[in-house]
Design a protein that fits this description.
Mean pLDDT: 83
Helix content: 25-40%
Shape: globular
Oligomer: single chain
Distance between the termini: 38 Å
Structural class: alpha/beta
Number of helices: 9
């Protein structure tokens, strides 16, 4: 599934070299660090690599903090760093530029997170909700939803696969990778339990978001996501879609329109104002910035849970 309509070049002009954003270091390029050098495509992948790799890995992210992942252009410097790395961890079909760069690279260990769990098709509406509110299907929504990291269970499955890949690629530290993976999976299991408990009894099961990033989360906890823009966070909704959302909000007791930190909140606030609803942040955790409600994946997910509980009227 190509989330963007426009083509994204694999290699930017040499004069526009961008600084690498490293996760375990500030700006160190991948390769020749004396550690197991991992290039990660964006934050959720980098977080996994850091948590599982611990002190044995040097992790470099291709996507800088605050950068919308779908807009990523791979620089010449990043391409060189990718070639020098021991492994690359990415999520196929989320960032076309990364997919092409990985395909063309000679990296020994290529770990595609999408192959480590089951992906599904999600559109404007996900969950146990009747489809009567939206009869206008968007052709862009026919692809598989890549936002697997927002479901703690699927993210845990990916973590286990990454751990095994690290063990195979760097056998000298296999025992530590195995232990770190088990610890991470345990924390994700605890997070899953918190979501299950916290969202079990709510006044409504329906929530509105700017784009369909929370389909797996909604499905996991029996909720319904109504997305303004489908899988593309910056596309403009049709007039029919806006009218349908306003009607649905009244019918299902929706109180809040959620927007995210890396994309403009203009559309969300306009619809909320017209429908007499509140707005709040539901973070897809595509990157951690000063605007994020937490310093890492777990802290932001806890904030997301609280936001959902408030919006859905948790009891």
């Amino acid at each position: 599934m190509n989330v963007r309509r426009r083509l994204i070049p694999v290699v930017a002009a040499a004069g526009a070299l961008a600084a690498l954003s490293a996760c375990s270091t500030d700006s160190a390029a991948a390769g020749n660090t004396g550690k197991f050098d991992v290039v990660a495509s964006f934050y959720p992948m980098a977080f996994l690599a850091e948590q599982i790799g611990g002190d044995h890995v040097s992790v470099t992210s291709l996507t800088q903090p605050g950068q919308e992942p779908h807009d990523l252009e791979i620089s010449a410097k990043q391409t060189v760093a990718l070639e020098k790395s021991d492994a690359v961890l990415y999520l196929k079909n989320l960032q076309p530029a990364v997919d092409k760069a990985v395909d063309q690279s000679g990296v020994a260990t290529k770990i595609d997170a999408s192959s480590l769990t089951e992906l599904e098709k999600h559109g404007n509406e996900v969950g146990g909700h009747a489809a009567e509110h939206d009869d206008h299907a968007d052709e862009e929504l026919s692809g598989l939803d890549p936002h697997i990291w927002l479901d703690p269970v699927r993210y845990s499955q990916v973590a286990e696969g990454v751990g095994k890949a690290f063990e195979k690629a760097d056998p000298d530290h296999a025992a530590d990778y195995k232990a770190n993976t088990a610890a991470l999976v345990k924390k994700l299991d605890t997070l899953n339990t918190k979501f299950e408990t916290g969202l079990k009894n709510t006044g409504t099961k329906v929530f509105i978001t700017t784009h369909a990033a929370f389909g797996y989360l909604a499905e996991r906890y029996g909720l319904t996501e109504e997305a303004i823009n489908g899988l593309d966070p910056e596309s403009e909704p049709s007039a029919n879609r806006v009218r349908d959302l306003e009607k649905m909000a009244k019918a299902d007791g929706v109180t809040t329109v959620f927007y995210e930190t890396l994309v403009s909140d203009r559309t969300a606030k306009t619809i909320a104002s017209d429908a007499g609803l509140k707005t709040d942040v539901l973070d897809p955790i595509e990157g951690i910035t000063k605007k994020s409600r937490g310093k890492d994946y777990f802290a932001v997910q806890e904030a997301n849970l609280k936001a959902l509980q408030s919006a859905l009227g948790a009891k």
